[in-house]
């Protein structure tokens, strides 16, 4: 079966590793113009996105992207009645490879954009994960970026799954917001 040529994750998290507040909403305090530009630029370079039912990138080109929407509301795979470029996918009823093939992007690239369970599902598959940190923001009782947080930091989770950090890129010096791209090392040659 086919798989994407590249799988990238994109998340901005608070100092305590949360991507949303306790109600599951990304608060205004976690939105930074420089990070939004980084995110939008990254998504403009992929062929499709995958996210949960409550996640969406809300970018100018969102309506143009093919997408897999993870949901338990369908048995396996189903067309999204509200978006002809979207496919509803229940991982309990269809494998990722089946969903990817049905989406029609066999040689394309994929961006994973949330939420917690979706980010966690792809941990063994990421080629790169772009983790933006907002150190001045705390979201007590919020929704974590990965299921293992807060028992582990997001960085520990990524390292445990074979990804290594590249040097940080400052996105907003005034607020201390920076992104670290965690990359999977290529497999050694036989």
Would you give an account of this structure?
By secondary structure, this protein is of the alpha/beta class. The protein has helices at 33-43, 96-103, 116-121, 154-160; strands spanning 6-14, 18-20, 48-52, 66-70, 77-79, 86-89, 109-112, 128-134, 143-144, 163-165, 169-172, 177-184. Strands 1, 3, 4, 5, 6, 7, 8, 10, 11 and 12 form a ten-stranded mixed β-sheet that branches. The model has no long low-confidence stretch (mean pLDDT 92).
CATH superfamily: Dihydrofolate Reductase, subunit A
Low-confidence stretches: none
The separation of the N and C termini measures 23 Å
Name the helix and strand elements from N-terminus to C-terminus, one letter apiece.
EEHEEEEHEHEEHEEE
CATH fold description: Dihydrofolate Reductase, subunit A
- Say how many strands there are: 12
CATH class: Alpha Beta
- The chain-level structural class is alpha/beta
The CATH architecture can be given as 3-Layer(aba) Sandwich
Count of distinct structural domains: 1
What is the helix content?
10-25%
Shape: globular
Largest sheet: 10 strands, mixed
Integer-rounded radius of gyration: 16 Å
Number of helices: 4
Kindly estimate the percentage of residues that lie in beta strands according to DSSP. 25-35%
Relevant terms:
globular, Dihydrofolate Reductase, subunit A, alpha/beta, 190 residues, 30% strand, ten-stranded mixed β-sheet
Summarize the structure.
By secondary structure, the protein is α/β, with parallel strands linked by helices.
Reconstruct the topology from this structure.
Layout: E1 6-14, E2 18-20, H1 33-43, E3 48-52, E4 66-70, E5 77-79, E6 86-89, H2 96-103, E7 109-112, H3 116-121, E8 128-134, E9 143-144, H4 154-160, E10 163-165, E11 169-172, E12 177-184
Parallel strand pairs: 1-7, 1-8, 3-4, 3-7, 4-6
Antiparallel strand pairs: 2-9, 5-6, 8-12, 10-12, 11-12
């Amino acid at each position: 079966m086919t798989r994407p040529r590249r799988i990238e994750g994109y998340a901005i998290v608070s100092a305590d590793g949360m991507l949303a507040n306790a109600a599951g909403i990304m608060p205004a305090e976690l939105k930074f113009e420089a990070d939004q530009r980084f995110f939008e630029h990254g998504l403009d370079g992929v062929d499709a996105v995958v996210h949960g039912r409550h996640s969406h990138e809300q970018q100018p080109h969102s309506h143009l992207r093919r997408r897999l929407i993870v949901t338990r509301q369908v048995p396996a795979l189903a067309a999204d009645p509200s978006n002809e470029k979207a496919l509803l996918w229940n991982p309990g009823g269809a494998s990722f490879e089946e969903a990817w093939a049905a989406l029609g992007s066999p040689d394309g690239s994929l961006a994973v954009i949330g939420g917690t369970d979706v980010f966690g599902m792809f941990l063994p598959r990421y080629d790169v994960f772009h983790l933006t940190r907002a150190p001045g923001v705390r979201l007590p009782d919020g929704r974590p970026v990965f299921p293992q947080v807060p028992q582990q930091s997001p960085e520990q989770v990524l390292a445990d799954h074979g990804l290594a950090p590249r040097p940080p890129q400052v996105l907003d010096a005034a607020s201390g917001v920076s992104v670290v791209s965690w990359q999977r090392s290529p497999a050694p040659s036989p």
